[in-house]
Specification:
Elements (H helix, E strand, L loop, with lengths): L13 H16 L4 E8 L5 E8 L11 E3 L4 E4 L4 E4 L20 E10 L3 E7 L2 E9 L21 E4 L3 E2 L4 E5 L6 E4 L9 E6 L5 E4 L5 E3 L8 E14 L6 E5 L2 E6 L7 E7 L1 E6 L6 E5 L2 E6 L7 E7 L3 E4 L6 E4 L3 E4 L7 E3 L5 E6 L6 E13 L7 E14 L6 E5 L2 E6 L7 E7 L1 E6 L6 E13 L7 E14 L6 E13 L9 E3 L4 E9 L2 E9 L2 E3 L1
Parallel strand pairs: 6-8, 9-11, 10-12, 11-13, 12-14, 15-40
Antiparallel strand pairs: 1-2, 3-4, 4-5, 7-8, 13-39, 14-38, 16-17, 16-37, 17-18, 18-19, 20-21, 21-22, 22-23, 24-25, 25-26, 26-27, 28-29, 29-30, 30-31, 31-32, 32-33, 34-35, 35-36, 36-37, 38-41, 39-40
Amino acid sequence: MKSVESGSLREGSLKDCFALLFVSKMLFENGGVVVNWRSVVVTIGFTFAIIASKKVIADTIISGDLKIRDGGEIFFSDGSVQSKAQIQGPQGVQGPIGPAGSINTLTIGTILSDISAAATITGSAPKQVLNLTLPQGPQGIQGPPGPVGPGGYSFPWRKVTDSFTASSNNGYLTAGVVSPVVLTLPTSAGIGDLVRVFGASTTGWQVNPPVSGLIDFGTMVQSWRSSGPQLDWGAITSSADGTKLAATTHYGQIYTSSDSGVTWNPRGPSQGWYDITTSADGIKLAAVQTNGQIYTSADSGVTWTPRDSTRYWQAITSSADGTKLAAVAEQIYTSTDSGVTWTPRNSMVSGSCIASSADGTKLAAGTYGDQIYTSTDSGVTWTPRGSTKNWYGIASSADGTKLVALANSDQIYTSTDSGVTWFPRDSIRNWYCVASSSDGTKLVATTHDGQIYTSTNSGITWAPQELSRSWIGVATSADGTKLAAVDNNGQIYFSPPNLGSPSYLSGGFGASAELICTSTSPVTFMILVSNGRVFPQ
């Protein structure tokens, strides 16, 4: 066993003192140490507490004196060296002060209320956040009571199921079973009297003016008018003058109108109709099925004849005279005899939409997941144009120079050089169908589960129209003034310009209106507030 005894530090010096301290630290940290305390006087006069220790090294107990040489080596009397002391010198001069660190910014984070107060700091310098929890203080003293408010106004409501004449200062919940409840405003109303109406059933309501009186519609925009049955509509087409319309249903017949959409008649067989087109005079029609044949009509849709083979038809278009047709399925097909016979074209193009110039020579077809393809020889040859997109609808001016195409979940694109170059327009929307006036300046496009949008400058700018519905097909007259659109699982809507001023107000399920009497000579009611699907008609 090695030990450090009094007097074993025989040649005392300051260096020895430092070394001795190192030995003590070494023995203490390396384990197996039993500490006894003694004292020794070193020649320079300092008194140290020297650790006298017993340490087992390699399971061998060795006895002897421990000495420290000038070089810092620690050795025993048997000559074995145990370690080498690293003697620390005197402390140096203090160095210069370092540069200042970044200024810490402390911002207030969350402030919560709880029983006990608390504060936490999150983040790292120089940007930290202080979060506080503050205890709620005691309730204050109750203040004095406020002044008495004005007396309440009792406004009675009645549930009605049949047509009637309303009374002033009453509300009516309409609950018609088969048809809308027709409410006629009172003739004996005084200025300031109110009438309220709310549609409590799907049949809706209609508010007529007082007898010999008026409804002041003010600046309320005349909306599109609905007509026809509620069906699963698909596509719609229009004659050049906008008087003859034809619309397809996905699981039913084709419907035609000869009075700009006021009345409709079912035509043809019940099929899975997908798209339809017409000649400029509205006499020659052609329609395609998603998994069937092409059908043509030469009498404005009264009778129909199946043509070509069963294919997965997607779209069809016609020249102004109805003799040249083009349709897309697994490839493009053309006809020069009003659809009696068909010729396959460009097997590389599987289109999703197609448009034609008035003379049928210039064609443009959009593809889903591919480019737009154009033809200047009635579909004999085709040239790819534009970018690869999911093209959903396309329309052409009468001369075929102005084109408008829309991509699903993308923008509208326009061209003024027959499709050679394209320019993005408006915003990214769920675009579905588009139609063009004969000069290409007036355009109308639908968005699925959105609004209808119109343009009067060839698509440079667009304005929203009507309400958000499941719009699918859309059509326009040649001059762009008469528009028609179909709402999937809804009705047909049209916007004629020549119906004069509206005469009554209508609303659907959940729609409400409040009218106020503003004059008694004649009795006039003004629309004060309206919510939901409320339309001047």
